[in-house]
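Lab notebook, bench 4. Still working through the backlog of constructs that have no structural model yet. Next entry is a single chain of 132 residues. Request: give me the structure tokens for it.
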Amino acid sequence: MRKAKRRRLEAKGWKVGSVQDFLGLTDEEATYVDLKLRLAASLRERRQHRGLTQTEFARLLKSSQSRVAKMEGADPSVSLDLLVRSLFTLGTSKRDLSRIISARLPAPAASTLAVSGRGASSASLRSAALQG
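Model written out:
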């Protein structure tokens, strides 16, 4: 975020910082959330690359389309185990999985965030981010 924009937001009462700071995540918790987001994004990319709809992929997993949507959205109810097993179903190799995990991408939980103070509390958002 540019410094000028940050100053304008802060002058209007917005709190500006990282998602990790806002949610009060430890480094380990932020790493967990980032890992889950990376696996979910990779699952969506690989499913689409194979030309499968969510419904078709759900049949392969013996699951439902809504569950695939939750997996691709990194829903808190989805476990890391389910994401990894689903990636293997799409033909992801152990080497590919290690690349997904170790990729040097911008960390979503460390992204800059501006919050007005309205809406859900940081405690409830933190809880939702870490479930699963």
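Notes after review: The radius of gyration is 17 Å. The chain has one domain: 3-130. Flag for follow-up if needed.
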